[in-house]
Amino acid sequence: MSEANMHSFPLDDATVAVIGLGYVGLPLAVEFGKHRPVIGFDICAERIEALQAGHDSTLEVSDDELAEAGQLRFSSSPSDLERCNTYIVTVPTPIDGHKRPDLTPLIEASQTIGKVLQRGDVVIYESTVYPGATEEDCVPVLERVSGLKFNVDFFAGYSPERINPGDKTHRLTTITKVTSGSTLEVADFVNDLYASIISAGTHKASSIRVAEAAKVIENTQRDLNIALINELAIIFNKLGIETEAVLKAAGTKWNFLPFRPGLVGGHCIGVDPYYLTHKAQSIGYHPEVVLAGRRINDNMGTHVVNQIVRLMIARERPIKRARVLVLGLTFKENCPDLRNTRVIDVIEGLRDFGMKVDVHDPWVDPSEAKNEYGLSLCEPEEGSYECVVLAVSHQCFVEKGSNHLRSYGKDDHVFYDIKGVFPVSDTDGRL
Fold first, then answer.
1. Residues 39 and 20 sit within 8 Å (Cβ to Cβ)
2. What pTM value is reported for the model?
3. What is the full per-residue pLDDT of the chain (431 aa) written as tens digits?
4. What are the residues whose beta carbons fall under 8 Å from the beta carbon of 41, sequence distance 6 or more?
5. Which of 15, 17, 19 is nearest to 109 (CA)?
6. How far apart, in whole angstroms, are the C-alpha atoms of residue 406 and residue 122?
7. Which of 381, 384, 376, 387 is nearest to 354 (CA)?
8. Tally of CA atoms within 13 A in the half-sphere of 24 that contains its CB
9. Angle made by CA atoms 244, 383, 393, in degrees to the nearest 5
10. CB of 357 within 8 A of CB of 351?
11. Do the beta carbons of residue 224 and residue 230 sit within 8 Å?
12. CA terminus-to-terminus distance, the chain
């Protein structure tokens, strides 16, 4: 019998550490903390202090839900990880300024774990990566730092996150979880571990690389579908046809997919395809369709700005030094997440035309907006703007109605609805 097969992985003995307590890690730590000992670890001491005080600033977990996780303890001290034997990595995997994968958070998390890794331990990655990253990029770091041998002394798994920030219907436990492991025994252990908290069930992939690939194509598929609709919206705009009317008509067919045009940002859809294309290019294949979709979606901010400028010119509104109000800054509605928001493309594009842009978003922490984008949020002033742009369809904006939002504009202002929330007759332009 090989040394790897001599290891057993009793589920009852699993003491879990969740590394990274953002939108993905915290709900996971809380759910596990209802059933077994868990250390929730994050390098941000302020984040740990807030969670220890019983509040999640991302609003993914309520104060009551935090209180229900009786076996969960929070820490920013790596030494507290020594008591654990199962590590789950949920750190961000962003791209750099050249749209290349930035594995820095993943490598640093692996280094932290490597310092406390012991024989028989299992390290599970949830962060979105390209196929092969777990075993080719992360495991060597674990081996080097710990001095232990992979699949002899320690083991690995991959179970891609499927968190949808701000979604109160599709929650961690109600979304099927894909699992995988570096050996058959570890794959069973990883699957059983997640099955203990996921009511929707699990799907055990045949390998870590299959699970990695499954994750990265989920968001790539969605990105391409939105890119198609965005390109159609551009075409229809040039033809003088209302995009929403076309989509409603086409949607009467049972198998027409209900995608809508829009800005594509966030930490998943606007990022993950670049992980796949990076890996493809590294093996000598140049992906055409995936990158074409990315180019379309990355340029939608410019398209929106050009439409707004044309509408303002048609209304004989001033362009240079015009005051514009942008409602919403987050990458999606009803959540405070600013990561990779493409609303910033619209703001910067309007400023490039010499406009003065005010930004209002009650969901956003003003200090975070300042730190991330150098923006100072404001309270809108009635009757003050040449143009009002609804950029994010927060419920608080929708409930106020188009008349209230238009009250911020001057006489004969332009009201542009990026999200297509209101009827065409209530707006001056939309995607």
1. no
2. 0.93
3. 234 444 678 888 999 999 999 999 999 999 999 999 999 999 999 999 999 999 999 899 999 999 999 999 999 999 999 999 999 999 999 999 899 999 999 999 999 999 999 999 999 999 999 999 999 999 999 999 999 999 999 999 999 999 888 888 889 999 999 999 999 999 999 999 999 999 999 999 999 999 999 999 999 999 999 999 999 999 999 999 999 999 999 999 999 999 999 999 888 898 999 999 999 999 999 999 999 999 999 999 999 999 999 999 999 999 999 999 999 999 999 999 999 999 999 999 999 999 999 999 999 999 999 999 999 999 999 999 999 999 999 999 999 999 999 999 999 999 999 999 999 999 999 98
4. 17, 18, 19, 20, 21, 74, 75, 76, 78, 80, 81, 112
5. 19
6. 56
7. 387
8. 19
9. 35
10. yes
11. no
12. 63
Tell me, rounded to whole angstroms, the distance of Cα 301 from its chain centroid.
19
CB 157 within 8 A of CB 194: no
Structure tokens at 41: 């670890």
387 is catalytic: no
Are residues 229 and 261 in contact, defined by beta-carbon separation less than 8 angstroms? yes
Residue 397 DSSP code? H
- Asked if residues 31 and 173 have their Cβ atoms less than 8 Å apart, the reply is yes
125 closest CA partner among 192, 181, 43: 181
Going from the C-alpha of 83 to that of each of 13, 78, 248, 416, the distances in angstroms are 12, 10, 56, 55
The CA distance from 331 to 16, in Å, is 31
Lookup: tokens for 384: 């003050």
**How deeply is 221 buried, as exposed, middle or buried, from its count of CB atoms within 10 A (0-12, 13-18, 19+)?**
middle
Which of 84, 138, 268, 387 is labelled catalytic? 268
Q: Could you tell me if residue 374 is left (phi over 0), alpha (psi between -120 and 50 degrees) or otherwise beta?
A: left
Backbone angles phi, psi at 5, to 5 degrees: -75, -10
Residue type (1 letter), 315: R
Q: DSSP for 240-286?
A: T--HHHHHHHHTTSTT----------TTTTTTHHHHHHHHHHHTT--
Q: What does residue 57 show for φ and ψ, rounded to 5 degrees?
A: -70, -20
For residues 407 and 410, give the distance between their C-alpha atoms in angstroms, rounded to a whole number: 8
Spatial distance between the Cα atoms of 24 and 177, rounded to a whole number of angstroms: 13
User: Which among 45, 189, 172, 23 is positioned nearest to 90, based on CA atoms?
Assistant: 23
Task: Give the position of tokens 């800054």.
Answer: 329
d(CA 127, CA 143): 19
Any idea what DSSP says for residue 217?
Answer: H
